[in-house]
Design goal:
Length: about 375
């Protein structure tokens, strides 16, 4: 597992060179292993985490433990999740015979496969390639933690904190900010690492909203995915798409027949954040290929409209045509609430919540 780690740890990206690490451990640049050499950054991360003497701290990607040792000085307990067996041995060596030996618990496995225990604070220097799924895994964790201080690739961090109108504002931004308060803490230049990685990093503080907003998260995700499919188009244009209207009308019929209630928010949250993570990964891949969020086809828009719906098959196979009455109903909702000419790229979290409430009040849903 490669990725950015704190002093004595690992950072993402790099070539084939090797660098000698602490305690004689070789760090492989080809695996994205770089050493954070600036102790001031390590201390800043600990300070900004706000660790209390009664806290259980979850550390993801501890590396050889320089940050771990600082955390142990402040916390009641540190639970370190580490995949590299060499790092596990080094962590064990560093605490052996010290007053902190009984404060450290090491979980030797892939963090994405681990059942995370209770913790108050998370400190993570994570592999860039799991930034999205790990972020949403943490946000879905129960009981909710107080805060997470995480090192990300700089551009990813900027997408997390982006506001409406910012070019980086995306589904990732609005979904993360729905579930948490997100703050950019500091930028960490690549020259703070040995050898330097190819990109800069940033540290972000995430504070989960507890309790989370009282909404159906699968409905929310279906709406947001649809709107951000072409975030610079007006909502009027998006909701005039034939396939989108057809699938929304199918959902409408099912809801009218079953009189479903939108309860089970905790189950919805887990299912929705998993989808949010996958969506964010797809958006990252599209951006890396020179694309953007503003590239969803009509069929993809239709599938997004049925985001949480059951039944297999692609939107193309289920192509249909909505009734004129239903189309008028959808557009009337947008018109009445002032959303017809709005664009997702400039809509706030409250705007999306208002839009979802308006549709739901009219009996229009984004899950079937």
């Amino acid at each position: 597992m490669s990725g950015l780690r704190a002093a004595g740890g690992i950072a993402k990206k790099g070539g084939k060179a090797k660098a000698s690490g602490f305690s004689g451990i070789e760090f492989h640049k080809s695996k994205g292993q770089h050493i954070l050499k600036n102790p001031l950054v390590v201390q800043s991360i600990v300070d900004k985490a706000g660790v209390k003497s009664t806290d259980v701290v979850l550390e993801i990607g501890p590396g050889t433990g320089n940050l771990t040792m600082k955390l142990l000085e402040r916390a009641k307990k540190v639970i370190a999740v580490e995949l590299d067996p060499r790092m596990v041995l080094e962590l064990q060596r560093r605490v052996q015979g010290t007053p902190h030996q009984n404060q450290l618990q090491i979980i030797h496995m892939d963090v994405m496969k681990a059942q995370l225990p209770y913790f108050d604070i998370c400190v993570a220097n994570i592999p860039y390639n799991i930034s999205s799924p790990l972020t949403f895994k943490l946000l879905a964790h129960r009981p909710a933690f107080r805060a997470a201080v995480i090192m990300y690739q700089h551009e990813f961090a900027m997408r997390l904190v982006a506001k409406p109108g910012d070019p980086l504002y995306s589904r990732l931004s609005v979904n993360t900010q729905l579930l948490s308060r997100v703050h950019h803490l500091l930028k960490v230049g690549k020259n703070n690492f040995r050898p330097p990685p190819k990109v800069d990093s940033s540290v972000v503080r995430i504070e989960p909203r507890n309790p989370p907003p009282p909404i159906n998260f699968l409905e929310w995700d279906g709406l947001v995915r649809l709107c951000f499919g072409r975030k610079n188009k007006t909502l009027g244009a998006i909701f005039r798409q034939g396939n989108t209207l057809a699938l929304l009308e199918q959902n409408y019929a099912v809801w009218q027949a079953l009189h479903k209630a939108s309860d089970g928010a905790e189950v919805d949250l887990v299912a929705a954040v998993n989808r949010m993570a996958m969506d964010a990964d797809k958006a990252e891949a599209a951006a890396a290929d020179g694309g953007s969020d503003d590239e969803m086809s009509e069929d993809e828009e239709a599938e997004a409209a049925a985001a949480g719906g059951g039944g297999g098959g692609s939107a193309r196979r289920r192509r249909g045509k909505a009734s004129e009455g239903f189309k008028e109903q959808v557009l009337e909702v947008l018109q009445r609430h002032g959303f017809l000419e709005r664009r997702a790229a400039k809509m706030s979290q409250d705007d999306f919540l208002g839009l979802l409430a308006a549709f739901n009040q009219a009996g229009i849903h984004f899950t079937s």
